[in-house]
TrEMBL record, chains A, B:
Listed Pfam families: Cupin_2 (PF07883)
UniProt superkingdom: Archaea
Record-linked CDD domains: cupin_TM1459-like
Record PANTHER family: OXALATE-BINDING PROTEIN
The species this protein was found in: miscellaneous Crenarchaeota group-1 archaeon SG8-32-3
InterPro entries referenced in this protein's UniProt entry, alphabetically: Cupin_2 (IPR013096), GPI/OXD (IPR051610), RmlC-like_jellyroll (IPR014710), RmlC_Cupin_sf (IPR011051)
This protein's name: Cupin type-2 domain-containing protein
Keywords for the protein's UniProt record, in alphabetical order: Metal-binding
Length: 107, 107
């Protein structure tokens, strides 16, 4: 058993100047999924892209918009966003503070 | 893509009078993991048990104690608790408010 604050896990800039940081929270243990904590600064956004793995996202802090195949949808704290595999998607921080969410993916 | 508040997902009492409610947040989509949101009322606790699947837990609100093979450890908001498969464990709400956490398991 291990208990750590997410702040003890190293935050890595996704790309230089991208306004997005990622922490891989479960570095050991789980065989078939990974839990990542993302922080997107105001004005920041993820690439508009698709891939073979699905996302299950839980919003911890802040406000944003997610763009999927059927348009844009606003979200806020306590929302769960499910993005199926191969759906093109993008997440934007539309608020004035940091947007924080967990994003769980298969591995 | 789907965006819903966790509060829109039905909360089920784990056992009658157990002070624990569970919501299965990703009912569709993900093939190999499940995201559950637990709420334990003050004074409530999970069974002291073990099983073949691991837990990755992210604490959303409240305070508690987790008991594992090497004793008890306190936790609070923003903590990540990793419980390997087969480790006997128990979670207790030691605070005065509801304890809320996400618990991700393989499937």
């Amino acid at each position: 058993m291990r208990v750590i604050s997410y702040e003890e896990v190293e935050a890595k800039e996704v790309e230089e100047g991208s306004k997005i940081r990622i922490r891989w929270l479960n570095t050991g243990g789980s065989k078939n999924f990974a839990v990542r904590l993302f922080e997107i600064e105001p004005g920041g956004y993820s690439p508009h892209h698709s891939h073979s793995w699905e996302h299950e996202i839980f919003v911890l802090e802040g406000n944003g918009t997610v763009i999927g195949n059927e348009g844009a949808e606003a979200f806020s704290i306590g929302d769960m966003i499910s993005i199926p595999s191969e759906e093109t998607h993008q997440i934007k921080n539309t608020g004035k503070s940091s947007l924080k969410f967990l994003c769980i993916i298969p591995k």
